[in-house]
Amino acid sequence: MEVKIGIAPEKAIEGVGRPTDVALGPLRDQVAQAVTRGGGTVVPVQEAEGLVWLLPGGPEPLLEALDAHPGIRWVQLPWAGVEHFKEAFKRPQTFTCAKGSFAKQVSEHALMLALACLRDLVRHARTPSWRPIDPRSLGGLSVTILGGGGIATELVALLQPFGCRIRVLRRSPEPLPGADATLPIGELHAVLPDTDVLVVALALTPETRHIVGAPEFALLPPGAVLVNVARGPHVDTDALMAALDSGALTAAGLDVTDPEPLPADHPLWGYDQVLITSHCADSSDYVARKLCERVTENVRRFGAGEELEGLVDPDTGY
Question: Which residue spans adopt a coiled-coil conformation according to this UniProt entry (predicted)?
């Protein structure tokens, strides 16, 4: 059975970079090859039954494309987080995203941020003279991970040699292998008083926006650190700075911020117990390679009538 797949935009745009950036020239060529490896044929969008969407920005161009081409039955999005496309998910098409694809590198980044916070690396780096600062070890600490997807799965595996007590809070009741406990999100306040490292690694929805704010920081024990590798709005930035000022939070490692990009004059840059990386937990080459793997597998599955990987739940928006 021939599988006809369109790729948008249909004309390559010059540049290099990630699917979240504007660079679509080389990436589009790679995706076209991935479609072929999956047994598909790249066709003009008006002839397609499946569509790989690579255009950055909001959902409006995609909605227009679906209105113009009702023969499209499946849309593959290039991002793991697709909160801006929730309006599209009301459509009858099947949507898949890249959730889980980039988890390995992001989980490595989360571990690095946790270790850096515990060992006070920002303060060390900013001190222009010899100044011994006692480190803290990750070994044996209590780690709570908000989110039970691919990042959590990979991070739990990375934490095993450290002998941490690991609790995962997720929407699904299914236990996450390797975690000491898998609990519903509603148990967050119950576990925070015994949480040394709080890792945010869940999808952004209206329910999870500011899931970590002043009440949550107040419940953490002395010496606790925060790591966020999900989305900036999960954390109330004003409450975060207040917690750092009061000592309720010892340190924070942030790959994402709110606002994002974080303005150069934002006061959060001035905290020497905060390590900020610029939403770069995964590399461009890695993202492109893993996206293409997802495209190849889903084209194959689409042609075979099998369940697709990375299915988006229209009700939850991820």
Answer: none
